[in-house]
Design a protein that fits this description.
The chain has 10 helices and no strands. It is an all-alpha fold.
Length: about 200
Protein backbone atom coordinates (compact mmCIF):
# COMPACT_ATOMS: atom_id res chain seq x y z
CA UNK A 1 0.00 0.00 0.00
CA UNK A 2 2.84 2.40 0.81
CA UNK A 3 4.34 1.79 -2.63
CA UNK A 4 0.99 2.60 -4.26
CA UNK A 5 0.89 5.95 -2.42
CA UNK A 6 4.54 6.95 -2.80
CA UNK A 7 5.33 5.75 -6.32
CA UNK A 8 3.34 8.59 -7.96
CA UNK A 9 5.49 11.04 -5.98
CA UNK A 10 8.59 9.37 -7.43
CA UNK A 11 7.13 9.83 -10.92
CA UNK A 12 6.28 13.46 -10.12
CA UNK A 13 9.88 14.12 -9.05
CA UNK A 14 11.10 12.59 -12.32
CA UNK A 15 8.64 14.86 -14.18
CA UNK A 16 10.09 17.91 -12.50
CA UNK A 17 13.70 16.92 -12.98
CA UNK A 18 13.22 16.10 -16.66
CA UNK A 19 10.89 18.92 -17.65
CA UNK A 20 12.44 21.66 -15.54
CA UNK A 21 16.07 21.02 -16.39
CA UNK A 22 15.68 20.35 -20.10
CA UNK A 23 12.94 22.92 -20.74
CA UNK A 24 14.94 25.57 -18.86
CA UNK A 25 18.00 24.63 -20.93
CA UNK A 26 15.93 25.04 -24.08
CA UNK A 27 14.76 28.49 -22.97
CA UNK A 28 18.29 29.56 -22.07
CA UNK A 29 19.56 28.35 -25.44
CA UNK A 30 17.00 30.44 -27.33
CA UNK A 31 17.76 33.55 -25.27
CA UNK A 32 21.52 33.05 -25.69
CA UNK A 33 21.17 32.66 -29.46
CA UNK A 34 19.17 35.88 -29.56
CA UNK A 35 21.76 37.73 -27.49
CA UNK A 36 24.72 36.75 -29.67
CA UNK A 37 22.79 37.22 -32.93
CA UNK A 38 23.10 33.56 -33.92
CA UNK A 39 19.30 33.47 -34.29
CA UNK A 40 19.49 36.00 -37.14
CA UNK A 41 21.93 33.77 -39.04
CA UNK A 42 19.80 30.68 -38.42
CA UNK A 43 16.62 32.53 -39.42
CA UNK A 44 18.09 33.24 -42.86
CA UNK A 45 18.47 29.53 -43.64
CA UNK A 46 15.52 28.08 -41.69
CA UNK A 47 11.95 29.07 -41.06
CA UNK A 48 11.39 29.94 -37.37
CA UNK A 49 8.87 27.11 -36.97
CA UNK A 50 11.38 24.57 -38.31
CA UNK A 51 14.07 25.87 -35.97
CA UNK A 52 11.83 25.69 -32.90
CA UNK A 53 10.44 22.25 -33.75
CA UNK A 54 13.99 20.96 -34.31
CA UNK A 55 15.06 22.32 -30.93
CA UNK A 56 11.99 20.78 -29.30
CA UNK A 57 12.59 17.35 -30.85
CA UNK A 58 16.31 17.35 -30.01
CA UNK A 59 15.74 18.34 -26.41
CA UNK A 60 12.82 15.93 -26.18
CA UNK A 61 15.17 13.10 -27.15
CA UNK A 62 17.61 14.29 -24.47
CA UNK A 63 14.88 14.30 -21.82
CA UNK A 64 13.69 10.83 -22.79
CA UNK A 65 17.27 9.56 -22.66
CA UNK A 66 17.65 10.99 -19.15
CA UNK A 67 14.39 9.39 -18.00
CA UNK A 68 15.38 6.05 -19.56
CA UNK A 69 18.70 6.14 -17.69
CA UNK A 70 16.99 7.06 -14.41
CA UNK A 71 14.45 4.28 -14.97
CA UNK A 72 17.16 1.73 -15.75
CA UNK A 73 19.08 2.81 -12.64
CA UNK A 74 15.92 2.54 -10.54
CA UNK A 75 15.14 -0.94 -11.87
CA UNK A 76 18.71 -2.05 -11.23
CA UNK A 77 18.46 -0.86 -7.63
CA UNK A 78 15.09 -2.58 -7.29
CA UNK A 79 16.55 -5.87 -8.54
CA UNK A 80 19.50 -5.72 -6.15
CA UNK A 81 17.85 -4.25 -3.04
CA UNK A 82 15.29 -6.39 -1.19
CA UNK A 83 13.63 -3.38 0.48
CA UNK A 84 13.11 -1.75 -2.92
CA UNK A 85 11.56 -4.97 -4.29
CA UNK A 86 9.17 -5.06 -1.33
CA UNK A 87 8.28 -1.38 -1.84
CA UNK A 88 7.59 -1.83 -5.55
CA UNK A 89 5.76 -5.10 -4.99
CA UNK A 90 3.08 -3.29 -3.00
CA UNK A 91 2.45 -0.74 -5.72
CA UNK A 92 0.24 -2.95 -7.95
CA UNK A 93 -0.12 -0.56 -10.88
CA UNK A 94 -1.84 -1.82 -14.01
CA UNK A 95 -0.19 -1.55 -17.40
CA UNK A 96 -2.74 1.11 -18.40
CA UNK A 97 -1.75 3.21 -15.35
CA UNK A 98 1.91 3.08 -16.35
CA UNK A 99 1.04 3.88 -19.98
CA UNK A 100 -1.01 6.87 -18.78
CA UNK A 101 1.94 8.12 -16.72
CA UNK A 102 4.18 7.83 -19.80
CA UNK A 103 1.71 9.72 -22.01
CA UNK A 104 1.30 12.40 -19.33
CA UNK A 105 5.06 12.79 -19.17
CA UNK A 106 5.34 13.27 -22.94
CA UNK A 107 2.51 15.80 -23.11
CA UNK A 108 3.76 17.60 -19.99
CA UNK A 109 7.25 17.87 -21.42
CA UNK A 110 5.91 19.18 -24.72
CA UNK A 111 3.76 21.76 -22.91
CA UNK A 112 6.61 23.01 -20.69
CA UNK A 113 9.12 23.00 -23.54
CA UNK A 114 6.74 24.98 -25.75
CA UNK A 115 6.15 27.44 -22.88
CA UNK A 116 9.88 27.88 -22.32
CA UNK A 117 10.47 28.31 -26.06
CA UNK A 118 7.81 31.02 -26.07
CA UNK A 119 9.40 32.76 -23.10
CA UNK A 120 12.85 32.54 -24.66
CA UNK A 121 11.57 34.00 -27.92
CA UNK A 122 9.72 36.84 -26.18
CA UNK A 123 12.40 38.19 -23.82
CA UNK A 124 15.76 39.81 -24.48
CA UNK A 125 17.76 38.85 -21.35
CA UNK A 126 18.28 35.52 -19.61
CA UNK A 127 17.60 36.98 -16.14
CA UNK A 128 14.20 38.17 -17.34
CA UNK A 129 13.40 34.76 -18.82
CA UNK A 130 14.25 32.99 -15.55
CA UNK A 131 11.87 35.23 -13.62
CA UNK A 132 9.00 34.40 -15.95
CA UNK A 133 9.91 30.70 -16.02
CA UNK A 134 9.85 30.67 -12.20
CA UNK A 135 6.13 31.45 -12.34
CA UNK A 136 5.50 28.40 -14.55
CA UNK A 137 7.55 26.20 -12.21
CA UNK A 138 5.62 27.52 -9.20
CA UNK A 139 2.33 26.61 -10.89
CA UNK A 140 3.58 23.10 -11.65
CA UNK A 141 4.57 22.55 -7.98
CA UNK A 142 1.18 23.61 -6.56
CA UNK A 143 -0.29 20.06 -6.47
CA UNK A 144 2.60 18.91 -4.26
CA UNK A 145 2.11 21.91 -1.98
CA UNK A 146 -1.54 20.88 -1.56
CA UNK A 147 -0.86 17.12 -1.43
CA UNK A 148 -2.91 16.76 1.76
CA UNK A 149 -6.02 17.47 -0.33
CA UNK A 150 -5.14 14.52 -2.57
CA UNK A 151 -4.88 12.15 0.40
CA UNK A 152 -7.98 13.36 2.26
CA UNK A 153 -10.33 13.89 -0.69
CA UNK A 154 -8.84 12.90 -4.09
CA UNK A 155 -12.13 13.73 -5.87
CA UNK A 156 -12.54 17.09 -4.12
CA UNK A 157 -12.62 20.43 -5.94
CA UNK A 158 -8.90 21.24 -5.53
CA UNK A 159 -7.54 17.90 -6.84
CA UNK A 160 -10.08 18.06 -9.69
CA UNK A 161 -8.97 21.59 -10.57
CA UNK A 162 -5.32 20.49 -10.59
CA UNK A 163 -6.28 17.53 -12.81
CA UNK A 164 -7.78 19.80 -15.48
CA UNK A 165 -5.56 22.91 -15.33
CA UNK A 166 -3.00 22.34 -18.14
CA UNK A 167 0.19 23.17 -16.22
CA UNK A 168 -0.74 20.98 -13.23
CA UNK A 169 -2.79 18.26 -14.95
CA UNK A 170 0.00 15.69 -15.35
CA UNK A 171 1.04 15.98 -11.72
CA UNK A 172 -2.57 16.14 -10.49
CA UNK A 173 -3.66 13.02 -12.37
CA UNK A 174 -0.56 11.09 -11.34
CA UNK A 175 -1.06 11.95 -7.67
CA UNK A 176 -4.76 11.02 -7.81
CA UNK A 177 -3.79 7.75 -9.49
CA UNK A 178 -1.82 6.80 -6.38
CA UNK A 179 -4.81 7.16 -4.05
CA UNK A 180 -7.60 5.68 -6.15
CA UNK A 181 -9.01 5.02 -9.59
CA UNK A 182 -9.80 7.78 -12.04
CA UNK A 183 -12.98 7.95 -14.14
CA UNK A 184 -12.21 7.52 -17.84
CA UNK A 185 -13.94 10.77 -18.82
CA UNK A 186 -11.67 12.76 -16.48
CA UNK A 187 -8.55 11.18 -17.99
CA UNK A 188 -9.66 11.86 -21.57
CA UNK A 189 -10.81 15.42 -20.82
CA UNK A 190 -7.55 16.23 -19.04
CA UNK A 191 -5.46 14.77 -21.89
CA UNK A 192 -7.48 16.74 -24.46
CA UNK A 193 -7.00 20.00 -22.51
CA UNK A 194 -3.25 19.41 -22.25
CA UNK A 195 -2.85 18.52 -25.93
CA UNK A 196 -4.82 21.58 -27.10
CA UNK A 197 -2.81 23.82 -24.74
CA UNK A 198 0.50 22.40 -25.93
Amino acid sequence: LLGRLLLPFVFVMIYFMATSTTAQFLMSGVVEEKENRLMEILATSLRPAELLVGKLLGLGALALTQVALWGAGGLLIALVNEDARTFLGGAKFQTTDLALIGVLFLINFLLFAASMLGIGAAVTAEAESRQIAGFFTFLAVLPIMFSVAFFTNPNGPLPLFFSFFPLTAAVGLTMRLGVGTLPDWQIWLSLAIQIVTA
